[in-house]
Amino acid sequence: MTNTDERRRTPRAGTGRQDWSTWPHYDAAASGFRGYWYPVTWSSHVTGTPRAHQICGDKITLIRDGGRAYALHDRCPHRGIPLSMGNQQFPGTLSCVYHGWTFGLDDGELKAVITDGPDSRICGKVRVRTYPVEERLGMVWVYVPLAGEPPHPIDEQLPEELVSTPFVMGGRIDPRPGNWRFACENGYDEGHAKYLHRTSLWRLFKAMPTWNLTRIERKGRWVFRVQEEQFWSADFPGLGTWSNQRWWKLRPPKAKASNIGNTGAAKKIDPVIAAQEFPGFASVSMPGVLRIAYPKFIHYEFYVPVDDKSHRYVGVMVNFAEGLATLRFYAKYLGFVRWLFHGQFSGQDAAMVEATDAPPERLYRPDVSLTTWRALAEEEYGTKLEALK
Ligand code: FES
Ligand SMILES: [Fe+2]
């Protein structure tokens, strides 16, 4: 028996589960894992006018003052009016629209009550919760605490290659229905891309394998999907042959899969991407970050929990170009990547995420991708909770 035959016959750990009791932290994280940084909106959308947002079930308002972005709990402690309905009456503060309670942006303390005069006795005795804020990748990120703990540095959580290497990027932030875990699982799901996306315009001229043999490899904070063997057509006993190849699609590469790019095309790889030595082209890390490495660019998806029923899809495409090559990237991104990849292709995923209804579920061999991601989340979150004790 060859190794391949053996793998085909050995049931993988993690298949056949009906519920999520194996991963209690993950099961409980319907509204997201607290204790992480999340991208909320584009930096350019945070202005002197406060706006309402929601992450991990927390209602927050974002406002910019003196060039800095601030995040406050979006609820006036007086009578519960959203502070995002208010506006700024004094620099460094935000006033509630109803009775003019005025809070400091940096510490949330009640600094003045306009309708109670300068000697209002309640000043300094009330505070609105504030959230740590950072700006990265052209977005405002907010730390959602577990229990009032100080945040870890955001750079520890970003994909390592985005911390100090120069890059250009294009992206979309779309509010989407469906639980964030379904979105993350869909992103990392081994089995779906070659079948669901075979009809997408993005894949119009590129054949996808019928199926793969996949191994999962852990490296640092990430788990990688490693494609060991690709099968471009398959004979299904008693049914016939099935293949995604068509005469108008490029032939699949003959060379061995390079592990960069999902068809294993042996193209020249960008030196920054090559230097990362990714074991596989798809990887996922906490708190729901997907990284798909192609030969010339990397695509990221951040699944930001809004509440238990909806999330924000943040799709970012990064190219490590400098100088004139950045113009080529922008032309390509705005010309078609944004519409075909971040639009129509990703829209197929959005439809599946909205329609997913699990658990109960009955997993199959490629779902080792899902169970490994859940195990990673379970382990990392357990360690985080232990550290806070
Ligand atoms: S409800 Fe905010 S000031 Fe009264
Ligand atoms: Fe997909």
Automatic annotation (TrEMBL):
Residue ranges of every copy of the Rieske domain listed in the record: 37-142
Membrane-spanning intervals of the chain: none
An example Gene Ontology molecular-function term: 2 iron, 2 sulfur cluster binding
Gene3D superfamilies listed in its UniProt record: 2.20.25.10, 2.20.25.680, Naphthalene 1,2-dioxygenase Alpha Subunit, Chain A, domain 1
Pfam families given in the database record: Aromatic_hydrox, Rieske
Annotated InterPro entries: Cholesterol_7-desaturase, Homotrim_ring_OHase_catalytic, Rieske_2Fe-2S, Rieske_2Fe-2S_sf
Keywords: 2Fe-2S, Dioxygenase, Iron, Iron-sulfur, Metal-binding, Oxidoreductase
This protein's name: Phenylpropionate dioxygenase-like ring-hydroxylating dioxygenase large terminal subunit
Organism: Nonomuraea soli
Higher taxonomy: Bacteria, Bacillati, Actinomycetota, Actinomycetes, Streptosporangiales
